[in-house]
Amino acid sequence: MxxxxxxxxxxxxxxxxxxxxxxxxYTKVREHTSHHIxxxxxxxxxxxxxxxxxxxxxxxxxxxxxxxxxxxxECLNYRPTVKEDQPVGTxxxxxxxxxxxxxxxxxxxxxxxxxxxxxKERFRVDPETGSITTADMxxxxxxxxxxxxxxxxxxxDNGQPQLDDACTIKILIEDVNDNPPVFDKVSYSESxxxxxxxxxxxMRISATDIDDGNNSIVHYSLDSxxxxxxYFSIDPANGVIFLNKTIDKPPGYKFKLSAIVKDxxxxxxxxxxxxxxxxxESNKKSPSFIEVPDEPIRLKENYSDFNTPIATVxxxxxxxxxxxxxxELVQGQTEQTNKWHTFVLEPEADSAYIKLGNHLDYEKITDxxxxxxxxxxxxxxxxxxxxxxxEDVNDNIPIFSEIRSGSVLENEPPGTPVMQVRAFxxxxxxANNQITYELGDPSDPFEIxxxxxxxxxxxxxxxxxxxFYNVKIxxxxxxxxxxxxxxxxxxxxxxxxxxxxxxxxxxxxxxxxYVAESIAENANINELVTEVSAxxxxxxxxxxxxxxxxxxxxxxxxxxxxxxxxxxxELDYENITSYNLxxxxxxxxxxxxxxxxxxxxxxNDNPPVFLANYTKTIEEEKLYEGCIVKVEAYDPDIKDRSAPQxxxxxxxxxxxxxxxxxxxxxxxxxxxxxxxxxxLGFTKWQILIMAADHGGRLGSDSLRSTTEVILELTDIxxxxxxxxxxxPVIWYENEPPGHVVALTAKDYDSAENGPPFxxxxxxxxxxxxxxxxxxxxxxxxxxxxxxxxxRKEYKIPVAITDSGTPRLTGVSILHVVIGxxxxxxMAPGxxxxxxxxxxxxxxxTEIGRVYVDDxxxxxxxxxxxxxxxxxxxxxxxxxxHSNTGMITMKEGTPNGTYLLRxxxxxxxxxxxxxxxxxxxxxxxxxxxPEEAVDKSGSIRFVNITAEEFIVPEMDGTSKKDKLHRTLxxxxxxxxxxxxxxxxxxxxxxxxxxxxxxxxAHGSPYYPPEKLDSMVIGIQEKLEEELQSKxxxxxxxxxxxxxxxxxxxxxxVLMKNxxxxxxxxxxxSFVGVSARVESECTCDVVEPLVCLNGGTPFADKxxxxxxxxxxxxxxxxxGFHGDxxxxxxxxxxxxxxxxxxxxxxxxxNSLIFYLGPLKHNPLLEVQDFxxxxxxxxxxxxxxxxxxxxxxxxxxVVQVADGKPHxxxxxxxxxSIEMFVDRCKLSTCMSLAAPTGPREILNVNGPLQLGGASIxxxxxxxxxxxxxxxxNQNFVGCISNFTYNDFMYNLGEPSLHRNAxxxxxxxxxxxxxxxxxxxxxxxxxxxxVILAILLLAVVVHRRRADAWAEKELDDIRxxxxxxxxxxxxxxxxxxxLHVLRQMYDGPLPDTDTFMQSRGESCLVGAAPDISGFLDxxxxxxxxxxxxxPYDDVRHYAYEGDGNTSGSLSSLASCTDDGDxxxxxxxxxxxxxxxxxxxxxxxxxERPHEESWC
Length: 1491
Fold this sequence. Notes:
With 1491 residues, the protein is mainly β. 9% of the residues lie in helices and 35% in strands. Residues 1-64, 1305-1314, 1343-1406, 1428-1459 and 1478-1491 have low confidence and may be disordered. The termini are far apart.
């Protein structure tokens, strides 16, 4: 039975409802193939509704068809007030709107304010209760004058559609007595004649209170504590002060009074002021007013005549024959007392006229109190008060509140409330501010209450005919306008009234049945399955969706408002293959239903299942034929167990594959016997077997599971026992024969094949051992007494035999140390200590012990150490510990060599009697600057300790000394210019490393890339010289991928001023604490450093002209086919971005190479990257350490003499190259790295323009598949960056034939394409002009020079003539050629590279011949310069003296003109001349060396 229609339908529904409640027997059959409109449903149809989508009721409720709007029934009766200055949150009142609908179906009302954009929030309303509180503080008084506030509250219901009502309310701000009265003047001074009769007026005071009502009424009084109060009285209402008794004071006397003014508020506030009244002679009379207004002057607020007097006052001076008066309109301290000059005074003779000075506004000030003061020439004064009252006029137009729209439901009866409009008139009196309302168009189908502004309907509306009306409302006040004569003020506003829709149509699903195919059974929770949709032609109806049936295990959930059906719980094809859901669409009254069919797709989501776990017992060290165990598994996704399961078996533990193998039938076989015994064997071997379905195909959806096979091994006696004693065992010298130690042993075999053990001296024991030791049972005993000074230790071979079958015997070495007893006297000793003081900031540091020659070495407790010759004459820079002999260098110790002398005493009675010897310690302190540490090279040795490195060897020199000497030869500089300053041992699990850091310098210090690369060239020779193995040159903690960091890794040199000390007997070394540590990030904000003379400004650098880098880097470098430049390598980052600009003039050449310089067999790291041009196209080679990847770009021709931008992106899984920002697939190169490595870890420097090594030979040693070219680059490389770090290309660490800034390269570039004959002609002309110009200049200079000098006045001079002060020809002579750097091609001899170097001559006696010989020897080794000596660079003063003899430089003449004592003050450039001709060594400070 279906119910249709309106009234009949409602009655039927009520009837059905009663039946359902009474018996719950009503059922309804529904076919899902057609749509039905149903008002009521039995409760059983609600079973299975998903709680997240729909909450069913226990019994159906009647739907509410009519949606009523909320109404403010008491809007006109609200009269809220709030006091001023109340804190935020003060309760004001509560609004309430009624809605007749049930709360859940449109009857729940919420409240909020209607406000204009940008309006300040003054109140807050609780959205649920309507409680209104303050959100700001109010001030009733001036200057704010906040006496009232208007708010508009909107009440909204929760119906469909949402309906509203609005109410505008005026809130009065009540005054609080929070302001004390204020006197109109800061001070009052008056004069009174001595004969003034009692009862006469003396003066007038006035005060104003800006509060309102009683709070503003003031009363005056005189302070009774004033000494002269009895002479005067005051009117409490107007402040007039009268003389109370005859004055008996002489002229000039000043009465001291204090006046008090108090308001009438609660509580009362008051102020006081001091009054000065001076007595004057009796003949002096004060002036008096003869004409003042008797009544208050009344002015309308729109009065604007500024010329006509408002009031006139006249006065007399009361001075015979003197009528002159001074009139003053007193300016008060409040607006009511003319603070802002609203009125002005114009005096004229004995009269004064008060005129309007500013516009009036009744709504601001309703009355004024003016004080007019007159004064005559006696300085006597009088005052009078004039009251002015402002009258209100109708000068404000009504203004509507913020509400601009309303609504009414369609089909509502006439008289239905729509909205209330409110307008306000700012006029101050009810005579002008009462408002009436009317419709602007009487034909509108609405009616408005002229007093309240309530709008109601005249007709019943149909939204389908018209859905809105624009209604004009006119608000008119109640008196004639002062703005428009003859009319009232009126304001108008157009309001939008919308006709709201009613829900009178059901929703309809767009399909009867929705089908979702192939939903994977492993679909993610919340994954979208399908979406259903229902359409409701009612605009106000909101359709909600729910699942009402078929949702087994809550597998799905439907979104209430969108109809999206999503996965809610895990699906399983093996459990349910398809779901049939019933979904419901409900608009609040009507509903519709549809079917949703969801088919689940079967996936491989079940791993193989093993039938059992397996255990097998076998004998160790035995190889079995066939299967030792057969495992079996099946795939649950394959229903037929008899079908092929397609399972592949494998061993999980990679290390077990050496001993075992398994085939796809599950047969586990031994390939090598298993060991039961420690340390490599196990009594039980756990073998993990993995089964993979789908044939175990890589990349497929193959699933895997594992099981374990336990192999229990039975023991055979295959392990000999060994000693377990703690070693070494100490037996002291001079002891009588006795028991040394009880021997203990262990056997890795089982207990049956182990103890008890039999111990004996092994047959390999020497006669000496057999004659001194013997073993009885398990006790080792001595046969003699020992002397440690003869032999300090013994290595005793002990044979241990077990009790197994067959019995096995093992031999272990027992280390016995003969303990020392102090039984020998000591002898004098000497030791050397070298200290590097980092930046001169070393704190107090223990630098080594005092050494004496003593055969005993465990007798420190018997010794005492003291200074020689006495404690008082000790060195101020060192301390000695009297018990340990440890020397402490004090903080601030200066450089130098110190010979320390000590008295060492020893006593061990009765064996060693008391005696003493002298010990000397030579301590050398050398300060090393921070630059040397920052620019240091480094070497890591393997299997050598710091003590072994510094101790002198058989030839008297240590490995450190040999390294020092070798480095000085390598860098072609003196040993004083080389420092080996850090030596420390780094112990790891596998090896013992020794890290050494060193520096070398001419001026400035050589960069680390130069130091390290040159050491690599002589690595084998250096290892042979030191008899030590080098593990790594340039210590790099990030070199082994993922050893220190999982992702990015950068090396950080950690430095501090606490030294690292290495002690041996006769030599100690105290070095700089400088070690490399890894930091697992590449994102480091470096401090702002400006290069090349740039200056920091804010967060950037201001650079000299021509330097364009962000830190003033020189951003370009050029090459000509025979050079290269070397720079620091970038860090190992998880992502690397390289950019550079290439301008090439060669089609086949190497642009850059970043990689190792030499193959190191101890360190299998081969990472490299190179960029080269092949036939003009860029080719990139990248090797992450497990194979080389080649990328080439065959689209963009780079070798065209034009600049091209090349970008390289290195990522874990991809390598990209772009040319000229082309991101198209045709010109973008992309490839994956070769092998499993993911990061570029490079130990070598970055080389641009070519390579300093033979890359072909290097590639053969590494076995690289792709080989970088050795062809050098011709052109310019600029703007080289790595991860936004700009390289300073103008300052390479090492280079050969490079052209910073590409000047020569650019010259070469411009010659391309120009006729050769034309260029030759131009060059010939330039050369001829240069020769002629040079000849003229030389001729004129020679003539001038020789004309001014005589031959015998020539001085020897080796000043560098490029410096100012070298004389007339100072630009023609240059000593820098004697310090020439060699950057030529690599020689074929033992040396790897030649480098710039400066020698230092050390010693007190300077020798110019030796100095020049050293410089000459450097040049003799330079293959690029001429083989003969040239003295043209050392000349006499003047030009052209190339034939002067150098022999005069060694002259020892005593001529006065050849002695220049002042040269010592000229600085280091003149040091050698000062040594030769200046003061003697005794007359000036000693210098250690000169470079």
